[in-house]
């Protein structure tokens, strides 16, 4: 990562944790860097490999022990830690099944109607992933309730996360799950002639989500809460936007025509808590992101849930097409380390 972005070398330090499921795995990090003020615990990869059918070993242990281990180490050795922001998942609330998202508002007070017993019995990798997200988040709130740490915790439940990649990608086989969805739409004319069915009818820009994490760290109103964040969006809508790019017009297949339910997302609390000045919101209309050598394009014309732009944070979007392959790292404004 540093070789790809040498401009980060003075502000970014890596500390490797070989196996975060081991007891005290994060202790050394907080001991070595006692000046850490804030922690952002980012999302794990989507491990829906059909071969991962053991819920306990493949999903529960990594997600639960990852959360509990980090919180315990921060509580025990992170004497200066003030707040922790965690990237959870909307899958802690829903699998995205049509009958589920059409029957209720997916809000902060909802939980996935499946438990670990269901995951163990079904032996389905995606169901296990969803249940793992639910169990992992409940581990956070159990820790906060029982331990009462000096720091606060905020958990986010985003939808599919789209946006530019800051890491080098050696081949298309190395794309992460959500980015690969965009690529499959972009090449749908060649693959099968039609846009694939929507994997999940909601998304959020990765930079918006990053700024929400940063905003939550210093916002008392976000303390010890979790937030659903994002917007409804179908793959056909993404395809309509991709066709606006002349170079992609012939590569995008016909719309699938599959009209699924439009989910109702309870994002009001996130808007009220995290958006301070709506004049500083991101607007993603007509944004064009191009990342050679893969020629991966992403364009949207909807406004996702946006947070105020922090000085030195990720670049704002505009209504005019913008080509960018360099994404600046986020920095705090008061000299504290994130």
Automatic annotation (TrEMBL):
Gene3D superfamilies: NAD(P)-binding Rossmann-like Domain (3.40.50.720). Signal peptide: none annotated. Residues 19-230 form the NAD-dependent epimerase/dehydratase domain. It comes from the Eukaryota. Keywords: Oxidoreductase. It holds the Pfam family Epimerase. One of its GO terms (molecular function) is oxidoreductase activity, acting on the CH-OH group of donors, NAD or NADP as acceptor. Belongs to the NAD(P)-dependent epimerase/dehydratase family. Dihydroflavonol-4-reductase subfamily. This is NAD-dependent epimerase/dehydratase domain-containing protein. It comes from Penicillium bovifimosum.
């Amino acid at each position: 990562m540093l070789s790809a972005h040498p401009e980060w070398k003075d502000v970014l330090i890596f500390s490797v944790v070989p196996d975060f499921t081991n007891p005290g795995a994060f202790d050394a990090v907080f001991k070595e860097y006692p000046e850490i003020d804030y922690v952002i615990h980012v999302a794990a990869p989507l491990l829906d490999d059909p071969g991962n059918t053991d819920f306990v070993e493949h999903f529960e242990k990594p997600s639960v022990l990852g959360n509990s281990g980090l919180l315990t180490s921060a509580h025990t050795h992170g004497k200066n830690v003030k707040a922790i922001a965690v990237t959870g998942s909307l899958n802690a609330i829903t699998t995205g099944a049509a009958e589920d998202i059409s029957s209720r508002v997916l809000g902060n007070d909802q939980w996935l109607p499946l438990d670990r017993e269901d995951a163990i019995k079904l032996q389905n990798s995606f169901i296990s992933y969803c249940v793992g997200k639910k169990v992992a988040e409940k581990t956070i709130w159990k820790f906060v309730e029982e331990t009462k740490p000096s720091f606060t915790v905020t958990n986010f439940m985003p939808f599919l996360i789209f946006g530019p990649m800051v890491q080098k990608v050696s081949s298309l086989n190395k794309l992460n799950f959500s980015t690969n969805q965009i690529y499959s739409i972009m090449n749908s004319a060649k693959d099968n002639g039609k846009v694939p069915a929507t994997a999940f009818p909601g998304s959020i820009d990765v930079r918006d989500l990053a700024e929400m994490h940063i905003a939550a760290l210093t916002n008392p109103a976000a303390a010890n809460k979790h937030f659903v964040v994002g917007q409804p969006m179908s793959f056909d809508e993404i395809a309509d936007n991709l066709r606006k790019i002349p170079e992609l017009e012939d590569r995008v297949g016909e719309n699938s025509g599959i009209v699924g339910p439009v989910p109702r997302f309870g994002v009001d609390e996130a808007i009220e808590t995290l958006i301070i000045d709506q004049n500083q919101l991101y607007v993603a209309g007509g944004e064009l992101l191009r990342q050679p050598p893969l020629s991966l394009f992403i364009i949207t014309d909807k406004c996702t849930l946006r947070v105020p732009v922090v000085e030195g944070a990720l670049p704002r979007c505009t209504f005019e097409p913008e080509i960018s392959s360099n994404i600046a790292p986020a920095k705090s404004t008061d000299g504290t380390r994130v």
